[in-house]
Write a structure and sequence with these properties.
nine-stranded mixed β-sheet; four-stranded mixed β-sheet; 11 helices
Length: about 300
């Protein structure tokens, strides 16, 4: 079918406005920053770029405003070879994200306003059912409404497509939604929010993973920052080491890099643990660069470090 992609991602696109400074200002205070970057972002958009650069034919389903930020998205996907499945509307603006990046540690805080993408609903997702069903891997998150994410997972599951759910930002979702997930990829904070288990150690992550498995998830892949990621299912519980890097510049896009690279590796037929190792390297490369989507690694860069 026309527009068929191995990896199809449902999510939001926003323009990232990243401010670099040694700390956040307190209320009423103004401080000087060291850098500013405007670029393409949104978890779904970032994951699509990561998957495409990692070698997967990639399609991205989203909703944009008819404005300059929306044009940024369309130009980004054209440049990256991503097939855009976009509803573009005059009624809502394209979303934006404020990102604070600590210019010493690379750690970040983010405020996201989804804008037009907040209007993604189950009916819109139904309109792209053929593209989802034809994929090898389907990916979604929670920056758009949960009902839309669930509908995408339902369509993918019905079509025999591998389902990957990145529950970020964390919110309450039904056990029915968990049961649609071949893979779920929370970070420590999101795992705690979903399971009630505070995740500070690998053993904590295993306990949280067990809760997710009990809810019907196939495999819990919990990202643990510098520790790496825990790949946890009923047969295997293994820590995937974080990639070693010389200097951390910006961690904002690391989780999206991991998800996009993992989806790309699964789509080409890698064994799941090997796909997770591939994803860890892709995430490690991303933190050595400023920005989110622009920081994603190429397949050649990842392969050099495999």
């Amino acid at each position: 079918m026309a527009g068929q992609s191995d990896v199809v991602i449902l999510g939001i696109f926003v323009a990232d406005l990243a401010f670099y400074a040694p700390r956040m200002p307190v209320i009423g205070e103004t401080i000087a920053g060291s850098n500013f970057v405007l670029g393409p972002g949104g978890k779904g958009g970032n994951q699509a770029v990561a998957a495409a650069r990692a070698g997967a034919t990639t399609g991205f389903i989203t909703r944009l405003g008819a404005d300059n930020f929306g044009e940024l998205g369309l130009k980004t996907w054209a440049a990256e070879g991503i097939t855009a499945h976009v509803d573009q509307v005059e009624t809502d603006p394209t979303g934006a994200a404020f990102i604070f990046v600590n210019d010493v540690t690379g750690e970040n805080s983010v405020i996201v306003v989804p804008g037009a993408a907040g209007g993604i609903d189950a009916a819109m997702v139904d309109g792209y059912a053929p593209q989802i069903s034809a994929a090898k891997v389907f990916v979604t998150q929670l920056e758009q409404p949960a009902a839309a994410a669930q509908r995408g997972l339902e369509i993918a599951r019905a079509g025999g497509v591998i389902t990957l759910f990145n529950p970020a930002p964390a919110e309450d979702v039904s056990d029915e939604m968990f049961a649609l997930c071949d893979y779920i990829t929370p970070n420590e904070t999101e795992a705690e929010a979903l399971t009630g288990v505070k995740v500070e150690t690998v053993e904590d992550a295993r306990r949280a993973g067990d809760v997710l498995l009990a809810k019907g998830v196939g495999t819990a892949l919990i990202t643990l920052g510098e520790t790496g990621a825990l790949f946890h299912n009923r047969d295997v519980s293994e820590v995937i080491a974080a990639a070693k890097v010389d200097k951390v510049v910006d961690t904002t896009g690391a989780g999206d890099a991991f998800n996009g690279c993992f989806a790309a590796a699964l789509a080409r037929g890698d064994a799941p643990l090997a796909a997770a190792r591939f994803a860890s390297i892709g995430a490690g490369i991303s933190v050595t660069r400023a920005g989110t989507a622009p920081a994603m690694a190429s397949l050649a860069e990842i392969n050099v470090k495999m």
